[in-house]
Amino acid sequence: MIRIPQVRVIDEEGNQLGVMPTPKALEMAQERGLDLVEVAPMAAPPVTRFLDFGQYKYELTKREKEAKRRQRAVTFKEVRLSPKIGTGDFDTKMHRAVEFLTDGDRLKVTVRFRGRELTHPELGRALLERFAEQIKEHGVVERPPMLEGKSMFLTMTSTHKPKIVDAPARPAGNAEAAGESEPAAAPEPEPTPTPAAVPEPAAPPTAASAGES
Fold first, then answer.
1. What's the CA angle centered on 210, arms 48 and 43, to 5 degrees?
2. Over the stretch 102-158, which tens digit does the pLDDT of each residue have?
3. Are residues 12 and 84 in the same domain?
4. Of 11, 39, 61, 48, whose CA–CA distance to 212 is shortest?
5. What is the CATH number of the domain that holds 150?
6. pLDDT tens-place string over residues 16-45
7. What is the tally of structural domains in the chain?
8. pTM of the full predicted structure?
9. Is residue 45 reached through a cis peptide bond, with omega within 30 degrees of 0 on the bond before it?
10. Residue 187 within any structural domain of the chain
11. Ramachandran assignment for 164, one of left (phi > 0), alpha (psi -120 to 50 degrees), beta (any other)
12. DSSP state of 49
């Protein structure tokens, strides 16, 4: 129920009807078989519009779902190396990393040490630095090589924009072959538009029945 004594009214066609007493606006909405909906309650006076509130909520929900569907979450992918990796495997891992970065994902490159390999961490550091150098056109080092337990890793951020896809992001495959992924913060959905004549941001709408006053 709208309790403000007067409101600014926009009709169902988007035409400005001006400021009027709330009871009169409700009466006009009733005559048209519509609801009087607050679309900018923080304005002075609040802005209302003649709408079919049920249809309005349906369209709003539909737009929000479409916006979320088209968003692509930036994920954290991982490529794992070993200190004794061969040239062929190194090139394969490098091409896979380029694919991840081209998609706009962040990348973690890890070298795992086994047994006595841990006594020569400098070999892992050199391998990571060489790997990053080979793909520097697609990403920049965000965190330099760091040793944690039996692994050394670095992280890279992409120089490409995340791709927008119509389908949900594909599930992560085998970490060794396709990389592990950790969801990162997704872009915020587009804000619900407020009528052009009102600069204040839109708030969750409230509706008054056409017969209420």
1. 15
2. 988 999 999 999 989 989 999 999 999 999 999 999 999 999 999 999 999 999 999
3. no
4. 48
5. 3.30.110.10
6. 999 999 999 999 999 999 999 888 888 889
7. 2
8. 0.46
9. yes
10. no
11. beta
12. E
Separation between Cα atoms, residue 124 and residue 147, nearest integer Å: 9
Please check whether residue 119 is in contact with residue 177, taking contact to mean a CB–CB distance below 8 angstroms.
no
Q: Write the CATH number for 32.
A: 3.10.20.80
Does any domain span residue 190?
A: no
Burial of 147 (0-12, 13-18, 19+ CB in 10 A): middle
Q: Are 208 and 1 in contact (CB under 8 A)?
A: yes
Tokens of 19: 């400021």
Tokens of 91: 């090139």
Cis check: omega of the bond before 168, within 30 degrees of 0: no
Q: What is the pLDDT of residues 197-213, one digit of tens each?
A: 333 444 455 555 444 44
Q: In terms of C-beta density within 10 A (0-12 exposed, 13-18 middle, 19 or more buried), how is residue 90 classed?
A: middle
Residues of the domain holding 85: 75-182
Residue 13 confidence (pLDDT): 86
122 vs 129: CA distance, rounded Å? 10
In a domain, 164, yes or no: yes
Q: What count of residues does the chain have?
A: 213
**3-state SS class at 17:** strand
Q: How far is CA 69 from CA 11, 60, 166, 181, 190, in A?
A: 31, 14, 6, 19, 12
